[in-house]
């Protein structure tokens, strides 16, 4: 499995925690995020993640910013991306199971690091249910 990750300054600390988790699972990572707390513009770090998912260079993406909203909106501009803004592991599970989400957006200022790690684990461990959900997912993209 290969994961692309991107974050702005609000998500740096969380990214390092997620990287530790992914490393412990022997998951290959493409790091597009900043490693600094200096203010940056989240689209500069989210678009590369979304492109990796869109072009199948990565199986999934993880994006982290303060509220998760800006990163999520940016990622969802890419037609092949289904980014889900999640704030607990139950939402992360449903995003994968029902919506076949391929990008997880984490709101660093509104979740704990422990919650973020639980969401990543759940997101990666949950399979898409298919069936009736597949029909709905096929209707998401505008193209």
Percent of residues in beta strands?
15-25%
Overall tally of domains = 1
CATH C-level name: Alpha Beta
Rg from Cα: 14 Å
- As laid out across the biggest beta sheet, the strand order is 2-1-3-5-4
| CATH fold topology | Ribose 5-phosphate Isomerase B, Chain: A
The CATH superfamily is Sugar-phosphate isomerase, RpiB/LacA/LacB
Give the helix tally: 6
Structural class: alpha/beta
Report on the structure:
The chain is an alpha/beta fold. It has one domain (2-137): Sugar-phosphate isomerase, RpiB/LacA/LacB (Ribose 5-phosphate Isomerase B, Chain: A). It has helices at 12-24, 43-54, 69-75, 89-99, 113-125, 132-137, and strands at residues 2-7, 28-31, 60-65, 83-85, 103-107. A five-stranded parallel beta sheet has the order 2-1-3-5-4, with helices on both faces. The chain starts with a strand and ends in a 6-residue tail after the last helix.
């Amino acid at each position: 499995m290969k994961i692309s990750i991107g974050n702005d300054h609000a998500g740096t600390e969380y990214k390092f925690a997620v990287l530790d988790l992914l490393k412990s699972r022997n998951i290959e990572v493409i790091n597009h995020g900043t490693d600094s707390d200096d203010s940056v513009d989240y689209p500069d770090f989210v678009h590369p993640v979304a492109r990796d998912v869109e072009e199948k260079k990565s199986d999934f993406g993880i994006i982290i910013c303060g509220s998760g909203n800006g990163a999520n909106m940016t990622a969802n501009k890419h037609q092949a991306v289904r980014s889900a803004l999640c704030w607990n592991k139950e939402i992360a599970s449903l995003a994968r199971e029902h919506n076949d989400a391929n990008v997880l957006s984490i709101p660093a200022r509104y979740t704990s690091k422990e919650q973020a790690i639980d969401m990543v684990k759940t997101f990666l461990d949950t399979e898409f249910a298919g069936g009736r959900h597949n029909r709905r997912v096929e209707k998401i993209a505008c193209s």
